[in-house]
Structure formats: structure tokens, C-alpha cells
């Protein structure tokens, strides 16, 4: 497959590293950038035969089979509309839109044009995420009750992220979009997100947007997806997820403290890992960043899906739902109340059972808790099915 990358910045280079640095059958054939010098340099670095400063030309070029959007958030809609017009498969980085309205316009444009539309949510493709999801789907931790996803770092690397208008918000739209989609996958994408309660504040930087936030997303089956985001966390990039189920627990740490620790006096000036604040002292490097951040699995899924006329794991519809949840989070941060998630076109299930009777112990009792105490005594706490009384054995 011949690919055009729109953008030559931070994420465009990560994508090119994934597609070019490893031997893959997919070829980056075109790159678009505003600045001719940077675009030429990008083309040279990754051996890309065509480059241009004309967005439409980079999309409609006859040798381009699919387009990757790696542009600032305020340019995603324009780029998606150009792909729809040219009828080219499109893969868009996160967040899909700056808000639900923009994301819905992108979804509708792609569906109207009948083009493939994949959502590049890399953190839903990390090896740890994929293994966690398959364990959950196999029933290893029972029914998911509560998920917690955290992304925090010392703040983004380009000016436009800090501009509320261009980015669509602050840390919530930038980092929370990952956390929300991670939790949605664990709870079940079929389950409707109903309402959001969110605290957000600007704690450190002279900006209009929030640089810290915590939110709770309540799903129709009663599950809670918690997100924690920060642009003022010191010490690197903290990417952690937790899933709490009725039969088990999953904890993952995707970046810091992954089992690779290094000490350096700082000689050599080496790159350590994304958002690392230091290259001296005890360090937490990441072995293969593009792999550990999910980019390899993500592009494999995307290009396989295009070739086989299938849906990828992450679609524009998912991107739209994430934006709708984030809209409710911003509304809640303003009103300080639970705010509804407004979804124009819900495609998941509408039959959800919120009431869970509990585990049956025998024909007369539900089991509440079983525990062996330090004394060796075994305690069994039960609920009488008929009277509702709590009893012990
Ligand atoms: N994990 C991830 O998936 C991940 C990580 C980082 C960024 N992103 C996303 O990727 C997108 C780009 O972010 P980035 O970190 O690469 O930003 P960046 O600032 O490093 O790069 C942005 C690119 O867009 C170009 N650009 C900026 N304004 C433009 C304009 N008006 N017209 C044309 N080109 C313009 C810049 O020249 C640059 O090539 C954003 O949507 C961001 O949220 C995703």
C-alpha cells in the first residue's frame, strides 16, 4: 500500500519510524508539509520519493492509496474532507475532532464518501493493552466494574497544543482521549457512556486551557471509567492503566518503570524516551518506543482492514464517541455536575442489565465474602435470598 503522510512533526516522525524503519510491505510514498525545507528533510530522512506543500495534491496523487493525518487538531476536519472528496482511505491521529460536532462531521463525510476511516488510537494497540483486552474478553477478571487510565507528562512539545482554540482544549482533549478510549474498550464499546463528572483546573501554566483533570465516565451497565491527566507531572511520561473486575484485577505500566532501568552521569547526551526530563541519574528508557506505544500493531490492523474491506479495531465512530464523552467532561468541569454524554447516533446495545444479584452460595443464600483469617478461622458472610438478612457461617 502506498501512503501519504500529512505533516512532518512529532507524530509524523513516529509514524514514519514505524512504517519505514522496519521492513514492511507498506510504503510511504508522499509527504505533505507547510515548510518546504522541513518537508524535504523529512522526505530525505525516510526515503520518501514525493513531497509537496499542497495538501490536496498530496492526497489526490494517483500513486497514493491511503492517507495518514498527522496534523494539529484544528486541521483534522479539513484534511478528512479532502480525503473524502478524493475518495481516499483515511487514517486520522487522535483526537479525531476538537469536539463532538467536528468528529461527527468527519464520520459523516467519510461514510457519505464510502471511504475507509480508521482512528489512530495507538494506546489501544500496545502489547500490554491487547493482552489485557483479550484476558478481559476471555473472562479472566469477570465483569469489569471500574477502570482507571492515567496519562500525565510535563506538557506537549509544540505551541499549538497550548492554544485552546487550535487544540480544542488542554490536557483533557490531548491526553484524556487516550484514557477514555482505553476504558471504553475494557468496559465494552457496546455499552453506552451515559454521563461524566469532571474536575479540571489550570494549576501551573499561564494558559486558558486546563493542565490537570480527573473525570469519571459512567456507563449504562454501571461501570465507571476514570481518567487522570496532567501537563504538569514531573519526571517523564506516566502511562498507567488499572482494571478492576469481579474476578480479578489488571495493572499495567506502559512507560516509566517497565523493567528497564539505567544510571548515567549524563555524558553522551542521549535520548532516553518521550517526555523524559533528564538524561542523568537513574533513568527509565523504553526499549522500542514505537512498538511499546502500539504503532506497529495499529498500522498492521489498519492496512489489513483496508485490504480485506473490514473495520479496524479503532474507527472514526470510536473517535466520535470519545469526543462526545470529552464534550461532557468539559461541560461538567464548568457546571460541577454530572453531565450527559450527547450521542447523535448510538450504534451499541440498548439492552443493558444494571442489577447484579451476586454469586449464589446455595439455594438459600448469596455469597458476600469468604476469608481465611490469621488465626486460620474461615469466615463466610452470606445474604439470605428470602429475607435479605446478612449472616455469617
Ligand atoms: N500518541 C499519539 O497518537 C499522538 C502523539 C502526539 C501527537 N498526536 C497527534 O498528532 C497531531 C500532530 O501532533 P504533533 O505532535 O505531530 O505536532 P507537531 O507540532 O510536532 O507537528 C505538527 C505538524 O503539522 C504542521 N502544521 C502545523 N500547523 C499547520 C498549518 N496551519 N498548516 C499546515 N501544516 C501545519 C507542522 O508543520 C508539523 O509538520 C495532533 O492531532 C496530535 O494530537 C498523536
UniProtKB/TrEMBL annotation:
Residue intervals of the GFO/IDH/MocA-like oxidoreductase domain: 136-250
Domain of life from the UniProt record: Bacteria
Pfam families: GFO_IDH_MocA, GFO_IDH_MocA_C3
Organism of derivation: Flavihumibacter solisilvae
Keyword Lipid biosynthesis: no
Record flagged with keyword Oxidoreductase: yes
Keyword entries, A-Z: Oxidoreductase
Record-linked PANTHER family: BINDING ROSSMANN FOLD OXIDOREDUCTASE, PUTATIVE (AFU_ORTHOLOGUE AFUA_2G10240)-RELATED, NAD(P)-BINDING ROSSMANN-FOLD SUPERFAMILY PROTEIN-RELATED
Recorded family membership: Belongs to the Gfo/Idh/MocA family.
GO cellular component, one term: cytoplasm
GO MF term (any one): oxidoreductase activity
One GO term (biological process): NADPH regeneration
Chain ranges of the Gfo/Idh/MocA-like oxidoreductase N-terminal domain: 2-114
Name recorded for this polypeptide: Oxidoreductase
Amino acid at each position: 500500500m502506498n501512503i501519504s503522510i500529512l505533516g512532518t512533526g512529532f507524530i509524523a516522525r513516529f509514524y514514519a519510524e514505524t512504517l519505514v524503519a522496519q521492513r514492511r510491505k507498506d510504503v510511504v510514498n508522499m509527504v505533505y508539509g507547510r515548510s518546504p525545507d522541513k518537508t524535504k528533510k523529512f522526505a530525505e530522512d525516510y526515503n520518501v520519493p514525493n513531497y509537496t506543500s499542497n495538501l490536496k495534491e498530496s492526497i489526490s496523487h494517483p500513486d497514493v492509496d491511503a492517507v495518514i493525518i498527522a496534523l494539529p487538531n484544528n486541521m483534522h476536519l479539513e484534511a478528512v474532507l479532502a480525503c473524502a472528496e478524493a475518495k481516499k482511505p483515511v487514517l486520522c491521529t487522535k483526537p479525531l475532532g476538537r469536539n463532538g460536532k467536528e468528529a461527527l462531521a468527519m464520520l459523516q463525510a467519510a461514510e457519505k464518501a464510502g471511504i475507509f476511516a480508521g482512528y489512530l488510537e495507538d494506546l489501544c494497540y500496545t502489547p500490554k493493552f491487547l493482552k489485557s483486552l483479550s484476558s478481559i474478553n476471555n473472562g479472566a477478571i469477570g465483569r469489569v466494574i471500574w477502570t482507571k487510565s492515567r496519562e500525565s507528562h510535563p506538557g506537549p512539545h509544540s505551541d499549538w497544543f497550548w492554544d485552546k482554540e487550535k487544540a480544542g482544549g488542554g490536557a483533557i482533549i490531548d491526553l484524556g482521549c487516550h484514557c477514555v478510549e482505553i476504558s471504553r474498550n475494557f468496559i465494552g464499546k457496546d455499552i453506552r457512556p451515559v454521563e461524566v463528572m469532571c474536575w479540571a483546573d489550570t494549576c501551573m501554566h499561564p494558559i486558558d486551557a486546563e493542565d490537570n483533570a480527573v473525570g469519571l465516565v459512567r456507563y449504562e451497565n454501571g461501570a465507571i471509567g476514570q481518567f487522570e491527566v496532567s501537563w504538569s507531572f514531573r519526571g517523564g511520561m506516566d502511562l498507567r492503566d488499572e482494571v478492576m473486575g469481579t474476578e480479578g484485577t489488571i495493572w499495567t505500566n506502559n512507560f516509566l518503570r517497565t523493567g528497564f532501568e539505567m544510571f548515567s552521569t549524563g555524558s553522551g547526551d542521549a535520548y532516553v524516551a518521550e517526555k523524559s526530563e533528564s538524561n542523568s541519574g537513574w533513568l527509565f528508557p523504553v526499549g522500542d518506543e514505537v512498538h511499546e506505544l502500539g504503532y506497529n500493531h495499529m498500522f498492521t490492523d489498519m492496512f489489513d482492514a483496508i485490504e480485506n474491506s473490514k473495520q479496524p479495531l479503532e474507527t472514526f465512530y470510536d473517535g466520535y464517541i470519545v469526543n462526545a464523552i470529552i464534550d461532557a467532561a468539559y461541560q461538567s468541569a464548568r457546571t460541577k455536575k454530572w453531565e450527559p454524554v450527547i450521542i447523535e447516533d448510538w450504534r451499541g446495545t440498548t439492552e443493558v442489565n444494571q442489577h447484579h444479584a451476586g454469586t449464589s452460595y446455595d439455594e438459600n443464600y448469596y455469597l458476600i465474602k469468604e476469608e481465611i483469617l490469621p488465626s486460620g478461622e474461615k469466615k463466610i458472610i452470606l445474604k439470605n435470598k428470602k429475607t435479605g438478612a446478612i449472616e455469617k457461617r
